[in-house]
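Hey, resending since the last one bounced:
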Amino acid sequence: MTAAGTGLLFSPWLWLVLPLTVCADSVVPVIPGDELVMAASAVGRGNFGYLALVLLLAAVGAFVGDQCAYAVGRAGLRRGGDVTLGPRRQKAFDLAERALNRGGMAALVAARFLPGGRTAVNILAGRVGYPPRQFRTATLVGAGISVSYALTIGALAGEYVHDSPLFVVVCGMLLGASVPLLVGIPARIVRAVRRRRGGGEVPDEVPEAG
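The structure tokens again:
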């Protein structure tokens, strides 16, 4: 995080930039929305009013951003053509498609913790005509969970590193990257047990983190 970015954490502009950044992160995953939430939470450690405002604004930004990604998918559906995410995120898109087909609303929440999964599954939901009301419900829940996760990491890390928001962001990124690996472990264990019992290959029922 640059000096300007660190200064933003102590500026009133944070309350405008925070929801806009988190919103944009829903459509363009390279934008550091979660990282900004973590850094802001580290700065506001122990101040429950401050943290509550971070949570509220970031959750609103995440929810609105999800609807924007869904609208991108719907636009592609109305045009009758494909909406692609580019070669770098095609793997995430394929994973999101499998998850959405099998998990529905639960997949919309779980995919937020996969690399590029949030954008991919939200655009895909629009592209396949996923029911808007169910999508809004799932993303409302998912926004609250994912923002709370980022805020908790930031606030806890802030207790130990205090005046180093950059270090909080780095730690948060490492922890976030570990989530898909942890999610995939139970799935692998279940499949291994079933193979031993069945004596053969068992189709994947839970998509592994890619």
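Confidence is low (pLDDT under 50) at residues 200-210.

Sorry for the duplicate.
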